[in-house]
Task: structure prediction
Amino acid sequence: MSRKQNQKQKTVQEMEAPVVNLHVKTSAVDTEPHQERPMGREYPKSRHTMPEKQLFEFAEYHAQDAEKIGYSNYSYWKSVWQNFLKNKAAVIMACMFILLFIFTFVASAIGRYDIYMAPDPQGKSYIPPNGEYWFGTNAIGQDYWAQVWYATRASILLAVLVSVGQITLGVIIGLVWGYVRKLDRFFTELYNLIDNIPTIIYMTLIALMVGKNMLTMGIAMVGFGWLATARNVRNLVFMYRDREYNLASRCLGTKLHRILFRNIFPYLVSVIILRLALAIPGTIAYETTLTYLGLMDIMMPSLGNLLASARAVFPRASYTLWFPAAIVSIITITFYLVGNAFSDACDPRNHV
Result:
């Protein structure tokens, strides 16, 4: 037999020989029959030899623990407050405004003279600021310190009440205007009728026909100040009116007011807050304009009344203009910064 035939025969014998894995050692434990062992006992051997009762057990169920699985610590208003505090400039200005409003009550207590009392009219008119009269005196010798801070408190209260009235009326009309299709034509024509005529004409007619007192003019400002808010809210309601959850609510027979205030209103919070923040300084400026034009006769001092009185004596007593103008500027800047910061904080897209 040749050498090539011998090598071929050895190769065939190797291929036909059984393969033995030398790395696997058969344990004597694996060959033992399975025995039932008590549950809960530690079983040190491999898993494939463990009994089924040892491998699978029923998990205990607790209702309170199950609720904690889906529980979240997220709070909308807490997140709004945290985001607002991140804007340091807005926080500082908000603190300044709060201190300013509180000081309007304290100033009357620390002042030397009453708001209406003229200590000595003769020779006391238009005295510049000094140690006795901190803000000087006015035309009839009254303490300008008391006048300015009393006017600041009155203007802030008037602006807040009028602004809240305007925003509330504008939001309600805007929700109904944007959601009820049948009323869209009516509110659109009403908006065009009022908006195409300058508001100052309406205010002049009301002042001449009804009166120039603060209550009448305040109601008139609310009656004509809702237009911008209502139009903005109406456009936003168009975006959310036909969403799936609102269609489902209508199919289920949900009442109109519940759909408006539970389904749509939460999406408008940031816009409403921004509108309110900008309406307060705007109302103060508008009241100043009306008083400056003689359309608002306020018996008690207001910032508009002081600014209107200061225009005639500005070259002689410029301080009568600087103090109320500085306070109006601080209020305007404060609400602009705070309103924008709080509006951004109310936007859920900015929450983490």
About this structure: The radius of gyration is 40 Å. Residues 144-179 form the longest helix (36 residues). DSSP finds 15 helices and no strands in the chain.
